[in-house]
Amino acid sequence: MAIKVAPSLLSADFSCLRNEVKRIEDNGADWVHLDVMDGHFVPDITFGPIVAGSLRQHTNLFMDAHLMVSEAEKQVESFVRAGVNLITVQAEATAHLDRVLRKIKGLGVKAGVALNPATPPGVLEYVWPLLDLVLVMSVNPGAGGQAFIPEVLPKIKAIADKIRSGKCFTELQVDGGVNRETAPAIIKAGATVLVAGSAIFQSSDGMALINELKTIGVSG
Length: 220
Ligand code: DX5
Ligand code: ZN
Description:
Helix 5 (153-165) runs parallel beside helix 6. The chain has 220 residues and is α/β, with parallel strands linked by helices. It has helices spanning 17-26, 49-56, 76-82, 97-106, 153-165, 183-189, 198-201, 206-219; strands at residues 4-7, 31-37, 62-68, 86-90, 110-115, 133-137, 171-175, 193-196. The chain is globular and about 45 Å long. It contains 8 helices and 8 strands; from the N terminus they run βαβαβαβαββαβαβαα. It has an 8-stranded parallel β-sheet. The structure holds D-xylitol-5-phosphate (DX5) and zinc ion. Residues 8, 33, 35, 66, 175, 195 line the site of zinc ion.
C-alpha cells in the first residue's frame, strides 16, 4: 500500500507557517501534521485551533491534529470548527476514551488514538469500530528531534496485523524520529502514514525526503 507522508510543523519556521505549509504541499506532502501541546500533558505549548483555522485558509492538505493535551474533549469542537480533518487524542490523557472518540466522530471528522511508547495496544480493544487511525508514538511526546525508540517496532507490527486481520481501513501512523535510516523498518512493520518533523524541516535536503519516503514504501 502507498505510504502517506505527514510533515510535522513542530520543526517548521513558526514565523512563516503559511509558507512552510506551501513548501511541503509543493513537495508532495499528503497530510499536514499539527502537534498541539498544552503545557500540561507535555511541558511545551505550541498552538491551538486559531492557528489551525488560519492555515486552513491557505491549504487544501488533509489536516491531522495530534492533541497532546489533557482533557482533549474540551478542545474538540474548536478544532472541528477550524477545519481539521482528523483529530487524534492521546490514550493516556483522557479517562473517557470512548466518549471523546464518539464526540469527534459525531462532529463529522475522523478520529485517532495515540499511544505513548510504553502504552500497550490493549487500550484499543473496545474502541476499534470508532478508529480511523492509530498513532504509535516512537518517541515520548513533547519535542521534535528525538531519537526513534526501536522497542516500538513490535507494537507497530502487532497493530498492523490486527488491522489487516480485521480488514479495517484504519491508518497506522508512526510519529517520532522518522528519517531515511529509520523509515524502512517502520514501513516493514506495517505503518501507512509517516510523520516527520526535523528530518523534513531541519535538514538541507529535507523537502526531497517527502517523496523519498513514499519510494521506500513502494520498493521496501
Ligand atoms: C512529538 C511530536 C512529533 C514530533 C516529530 O511530540 O508528536 O510529531 O514533532 O518530530 P521528529 O520527526 O523531529 O521526531
Ligand atoms: Zn505528532
